[in-house]
Amino acid sequence: MTTQHNLDALFPTLAEIPEPYRPGAPIEQRDYLVNGQLVRWDGPLASVRSPVFLATEQGDQQVLLGSTPLLDADAALAALDAAVAAYDHGQGAWPTLRVAERIQHVEAFLVRMREQRTAVVKLLMWEIGKNLKDSEKEFDRTCDYIVDTIEALKELDRRSSRFELEQGTLGQIRRVPLGVALCMGPFNYPLNETFTTLIPALIMGNTVVFKPAKFGVLLIRPLLEAFRDSFPAGVINIIYGRGRDTVSALMASGKVDVFAFIGTNKGASDLKKLHPRPHRLRAALGLDAKNPGIVLPQVDLDNAVSEAITGALSFNGQRCTALKILFVHEDVLQPFLDKFCAKLAQLKPGMPWDAGVALTPLPEPGKVDFLNGLLADAVEKGARVINPGGGAHRESFFYPALLSPVTPQMRLYHEEQFGPLIPVVPYREVEEVIDYVLHSDFGQQLSLFGNDSAQIGRLVDAFANQVGRININAQCQRGPDNFPFNGRKNSAEGTLSVHDALRTFSIRTLVATKFQADNKALISEIIRNRESSFLTTDYIF
User: Fold this and answer.
1) Burial code of 397-418, b = ≥16 C-beta within 10 A, e = fewer?
2) How many domains are contained in the chain?
């Protein structure tokens, strides 16, 4: 049972932090990457503060990790101009490079990236409060994603190396880049989610302007030299600052061809509206979600509770794929709540480096107040906090609250909490749940928990045209990365997976000729003399 008493001892003194994980002196970062150079910024800086506080004689003190450049529109546009020049209307060295050579650049970057594992993992813990195990997993999974992307591109290129003959026309179809990509990732997976768009954009021959997430920004600093040294000048440009000062100017310029963004649907809509030629803008968007978990009356309750608690509270529920609302049939409601509370009580609160810790401080300023507001609204309208200590908080830490019964009159029924609140909606007829999903503004994923094949089959059919993924007796999740990751309604635009991302950041181009002797001889000579990067039968091993 979590009480205010043990939350009082939540934050450590500096001496209590193990030596390898202690914060160093604040990092004053003034460098950003433009046109192959680390450029020094002499203007204002943004402070970077950890969600971790230190216990001192003067009370809890938030840890200052450092600062990053607050670039203005002119600096951002200079980075964009570098990307535009490097692309050079598709004639630049990078977009015309052979696929095998682009792969070599990405492989060189991966070697350099792996050298920074310790530094990046430590900053992940301190900047966003992600526990050590999950921070290490995020770094390693990102490296694996890069390896998988390289292999997927090799396979794609192998299939494209052949010529096709149709109705007397000989052709070769290859995928080519789209232009200049603007990549922006989220704070909850500032490395992994960002790189699932950044790496495919680069490896397909696009040039990139990359703006790190609002939180989890310092952790890109150890990788700046790796980016600089691994890619030609202007191919990758990394900027910092407030979105309204930088990104707005980039979009309004009309020079961005691909917009990769993970955040809110309102933020994406506002930015897309700034682009003067929206029909020329390709978008890859991961947006809001209110993923429901649906517990049916015939169910393995132990599995349902285990998956639901992991789905709702991994990284404190700060995942777009988290289970955000649970519909539990009234026949199993009480045993579900009892088992959920018992399992929740076993989750260990603490600091990111603590062994076995599951609940950590929240990085967003004002998040605790926001969660308190949702909780108070639900309680005022009839919900109860089911678990002992639910909703207790201290500074940036909020202990999870299991709430039931949640009804449509409550904000929590509709709004995405993106944090450790678990709303439970009791239901009698499954049509109530179907109606919720059909009329929701969001359509990323959902989870079905049950063992009645007829009912599961019926619900799969009911929801197949509503969400991008239906999970049976399992939590919502992104992986494996070879599976499609998308959404409907206001939850996404485009599909991301290792396979799909390569297609998202490219377009098919066909070179064709009439199938006759002189044309065959011409094409053969081009290939034999290696006179084209596009027309080639090279096979990449």
Assistant:
1) bbbbbbbbbbeeebbbbebbbb
2) 2
